[in-house]
Write a structure and sequence with these properties.
This protein has helices at 3-36, 41-65, 71-91, 95-105, 116-124, 134-155, 158-166, 170-193. The protein has 198 residues and is mainly alpha-helical. Helix 1 packs antiparallel against helix 8 (170-193).
C-alpha cells in the first residue's frame, strides 16, 4: 500500500467521523428546534420530509454525475450544502424558508447517513487497501460512523448544558449547537479538499 493510499484512507476516516457527529446531533435537534419555533406537528413533518427528499435528490444527482465530476469536488460540494442549509435555518423562523433550508441542507433526520457522501467514500476505500485488508478497512469505517452518530446524539444535549452552565436560553443554545453542526461540515469539506488526486 502506498503512502498516498494510506493518506486517502486517513482523510476519509476523519471526515466521516466528523460528519457522523454532525448527523447524530442534527437528527435530535432539528425536530426540537422547529418545535421551539412554534411549528405544528404537520409543519415539523414537512421539514423532516423536505430534508429526506433533498438527500434523495443529491444521491440521484451523484449517481448521474459521479463518473464525470472529480470525487474531491463532489465531496466538498456535498459538504457545502448542509452548511448553506443550516445557515438559512439559523437566519429565519419563517416556515417556507426553513422547509427550503432542510431540503438544501439534506439533513439526515433518521440519525444515519444514507446519502450521497457514503456512496462516494465507499467507492474510494478499495483503492486504499489490499484485497486481504478490505474487510478490516470497511469495518473501521462503520465503527467510526456508528461511534460518531452515537456521540453526536449525546452532543445534542449541548443546549441544555449551556442553559444550566451559562444561563443561555434554550433557543440560543440550539442555535449555538447548529453552529457546531456547520463547523463540523466545514472541517469535513476542508479535509476532502486535501484528498490526493486520483
Amino acid at each position: 500500500m502506498t503512502a498516498s493510499a494510506a493518506r486517502l484512507r486517513r482523510i476519509l476516516y476523519a471526515a466521516a467521523f466528523l460528519r457522523a457527529l454532525a448527523i447524530g446531533m442534527m437528527a435530535v435537534l432539528i425536530g426540537l428546534y422547529c418545535a421551539r419555533l412554534g411549528f405544528s406537528a404537520v409543519q415539523i413533518g414537512a421539514v423532516l420530509s423536505a430534508a429526506l427528499w433533498g438527500a434523495a435528490l443529491a444521491t440521484l444527482a451523484t449517481m448521474l454525475a459521479g463518473s464525470r465530476v472529480a470525487e474531491r469536488s463532489l465531496l466538498v460540494a456535498l459538504c457545502g450544502l448542509p452548511v448553506l442549509g443550516c445557515a438559512l435555518l439559523l437566519a429565519t423562523d419563517a416556515f417556507p424558508v426553513i422547509v427550503a433550508a432542510a431540503f438544501v441542507g439534506m439533513f439526515n433526520v433518521n440519525g444515519r447517513d444514507r446519502g450521497a457522501i457514503p456512496i462516494l467514500e465507499q467507492a474510494m476505500f478499495p483503492a486504499t487497501t489490499t484485497d486481504a485488508d478490505r474487510t478490516r478497512v470497511f469495518a473501521w469505517y462503520n465503527v467510526l460512523l456508528d461511534g460518531g452518530y452515537a456521540a453526536g446524539g449525546l452532543l445534542a444535549g449541548l443546549p441544555t448544558l449551556l442553559e444550566h452552565a451559562a444561563g443561555i436560553g434554550t433557543l440560543e443554545g440550539m442555535k449555538i449547537s447548529l453552529g457546531v453542526f456547520c463547523t463540523l461540515y466545514v472541517v469535513s469539506a476542508f479535509l476532502y479538499a486535501r484528498l490526493p488526486p486520483r
